[in-house]
Amino acid sequence: MRWHKRLLVAGVTGALALTASACAGGQVRGAGGTPEPAASSGGQPAATPAAQANDSTFVYAPNLDVVTDWDPATSYSNELVALQNIYEGLTRYDSQERKAVPRLATEWTSADGGKEWTFKLRQDVTFHSGAKLDAEAAKKAIERTIDKKGGAAYIWDSVKTIEAVDPSTLKFTLKYPTPLDLVASSAYAAYIYDVDAVDKDGKSDAGTGPYTIDSWQKGKETELTLKAYEDYWGGWKPEQYKKVAFRVTPEITTAWQLLQKGEVNFVQRLNPQLFEQAGATPDVQTASSPSFQNLLVLFNTAKGPLKDARIRQALQYAIDYDGLVAALKGSGQKASGLVPEGLLGHVSGMEPKQDLPKAQELLAEAGYGPDNPELKLTLTYAQGDEDQKLLVTLLSSALKGVNVTLQAKPMSWGAQWDLGKKQGQDIFVMYWYPDYPDAYSWFLNVFKSEDEPQFNLSYLKDSGIDAQIDSLPELTATDQLKADQAYQDLQKEIIQEQAAVAVPYVQKYSRALTADVEGYVDNPAYPNVVFFYDLKRKS
Amino acid sequence: MLRYLIRRLGQALLVVAGVVVLTFVIMRLVPGDPAVAFTGPKATPEELAAAHRRFGLDDPIPVQLLDYVRDLLSGDWGISLHTKQPVRDDLYLAFPASLELVGTALVIAVVVGIPVGVLAARFKTKFPDIGVRLGSVLAVSIPVFWLALALQLVFASTLDWFPIAGEYDGELDTTSPLTLWTNITIVDALITGNWPIFTSTLHHLVLPALVVAAYPTGVIAQMTRAALIEEGGQDHTRLERALGFGETSILTRFALRPALNPVLSLIALVFAYSLVNGFLVEAIFNWPGLGRYAADSIRSLDTPAIAGVTLLVAVMYVLANLVVDILQGFVDPRTRAR
């Protein structure tokens, strides 16, 4: 055989071998269908007469895998966006009203100082499996979630017993007072589902929500499609979207081009430059709103030079808050206190300001500053986070002027946290967000005394503050006005008196949508979630 | 030939073993606790301890290495920390699309690179040669992400000649569902006669494959040119010239065969390189391959997944080299003796 013939044979054999090795054996891909979005070529939305059936697909462009866990009990990742449209909880949080509003429960009451909660369930609700929702089914779902102990199941830690009093009444008895209406509105682990219909392979689902799984193709570009659940208790109007697709688009620039072409309808994040461009682009609309995630600059109150409260206060004054927010170009807004806007306990008028003379004065009192010995401080922050890097750069240069040298180390979360648990730094920078829409999360986790620090990385130990924190859940459950006041007092104590933390900014979401979508409202309690049922296509 | 094969196979296994040890060491050298990445940033000490036990992170390092090798041999490549699925299953889903992209790119590189190299050698130091040399230097040195973004912006976004992103039109899953045999879309579409998906995939492949092909085309053209020019100075070429063969005939009929030997080795080298180089291209064109998986894994510090991708790429590199070595053994018996 001549050499080139041999080469050809070898090549064909190789190709066949590779083919055989990857053999998947005759499965049909995408049987559920992967519909295209609205026929709006070149970004021109097609005209739809008023109340005409909306047969277009709403296409969401996430930058990461859509689903990593289909179990509503343990899910604790990006699939939140899909699951919040497939599953529902007893309540949903309304960030405008700063309270939980009805969802599968129509009304609820609490008694015994927030230790007993009774929820009345909505009638005529069916699961996608066909089963009927009643108190017994809801009880089973929450109990299964608690038993699984995965994801955010700990939100139910206060629950002692659950009782299905009658088919439409669910009663919780708690170990300690907790605002259970807020817990039930959590973004994770609060889903009510048919325990007998959970399918971890994503072929079907067990929810009651407006949408159900159409197809799931792990690893594919159009990873997930959803279709309307025809028997949804809320009913359907012609102009609502009946089909939803998730098209994974890791690159922001690609997402932006797809949006301009009308090939996707929603991009969950744009960088500041593209966001500005989007604002001036016809056929595209933008939405920007603050999240529930803020940046905490935690000072080591337990050891090292920052044990002196005056130096901590000096550091608070040294941060260029306005400069930082300006440099963030819309991806952050100045924080006012520890609790972000939209949550009970938010205080307005607590926005900090840079005051370098005051910082210098405080440092001088503590024996540092320009005419005194140099002060060296170590700081750890998240590797790869450009916003945090910006803070560090600005703080570092401001401190240089007052004879303070900042040794900043960018680290992976695991390494930074390990070091933090050993009190290995003077300043720890991290984001915090609540698991359910309750400001208590910041105080319980970050500022309550801990013998072995987990998230109390300012190492604050103050029995007075602990007592105030302990009183918060009962107040939230029984007297919201008093709770609001208690949160305000605590924030003043922790930020101004103790100077344990500086809060430079709250992250902001920069969304972009095609102009033909109506009804989009960002709800920071459910990060990146679009409630597709609330949307309609403009006529 | 058998001894040659055994020797080459032994060397390949040695390289793979080295890579296994290296990936394990790197996994353990990365600062931070893998259990934290698995359990999430707000894990309780109990959950962390459970994750430690599950992944054997409390065992001594040599024991962990032995367990890792034993698991690998039994087909267990670990559990991905971000998808919570077996890494092997994840790779099985992602790899075929990458193979499709890089395979197409290499076909382009060979089909374009070799003739262009011959052309440059034929017209050495003349205009075509200068053009080819300039072109190939450009193809090799342009950053791949820049080229991808530029082609996407010009040919997809502005001119609308090609799709912006994706592997094929999503709506074809409804109108013309594909039956999977190999998981490589274009191959499956071809063998099942699914022409709508076949043509759509080809259309979607053009831009990303051209971008991935830029580097290999450049080096293959350069190498072919250099090897042919070297062959031009050999005794046999002088004899052929004396016998009255024309320059083109000498190059294509007599010089090309021995000159292709180093080119073949080069193809094996650029295959693995293109696989990794293609990761960025995959991200820009939403190509559902290893690139997206690797990027997500790196972003979430998913060490088992990163190790899995590394190992797979290393194995592919070794395999490609082995195949070329064997082919060279057939093509040129002298190599068997080396």
UniProtKB/TrEMBL annotation, chain A:
Which Gene Ontology BP annotations are present?
peptide transport
Name one matching Pfam family. Answer: SBP_bac_5
- List locations, semicolon-separated: Cell envelope
The record's family statement is: Belongs to the bacterial solute-binding protein 5 family.
Question: Does the keyword Transport feature in the UniProt annotation?
Answer: yes
Region annotation Disordered: residue ranges? 27-50
Main localization is other
Q: What is this protein called?
A: ABC transporter substrate-binding protein
Q: Does the keyword Transport apply?
A: yes
Where does the signal peptide begin and end?
1-24
Residue spans of biased composition, Low complexity class: 38-50
Query: What are the record keywords, sorted?
Result: Signal, Transport
CDD domains named among the record's database cross-references: PBP2_NikA_DppA_OppA_like_7
One GO cellular component from the entry?
cell envelope
Q: What are the recorded GO MF terms, alphabetically?
A: peptide transmembrane transporter activity
Tell me the ranges covered by the Solute-binding protein family domain, including all copies: 100-450
Automatic annotation (TrEMBL), chain B:
From the UniProt record, which GO molecular function terms apply?
A: dipeptide transmembrane transporter activity
Which PANTHER family does UniProt cross-reference here? DIPEPTIDE TRANSPORT SYSTEM PERMEASE PROTEIN DPPB-RELATED
Native source organism of the sequence: Nonomuraea phyllanthi
The protein's location, in the record's own words, is:
Cell membrane
Q: How does it sit in the membrane?
A: Multi-pass membrane protein
GO cellular component terms, semicolon-separated: plasma membrane
Q: Which UniProt keywords apply?
A: Cell membrane, Membrane, Transmembrane, Transmembrane helix, Transport
Regarding protein family, the annotation reads: Belongs to the binding-protein-dependent transport system permease family.
This one is known as ABC transporter permease subunit
Regions crossing the membrane: 12-30, 101-120, 132-155, 202-221, 263-285, 305-331
Concerning Pfam families, the annotation shows: BPD_transp_1, BPD_transp_1_N
Kindly give the InterPro entries that the UniProt entry links to this protein.
BPD_transp_1_N, MetI-like, MetI-like_sf
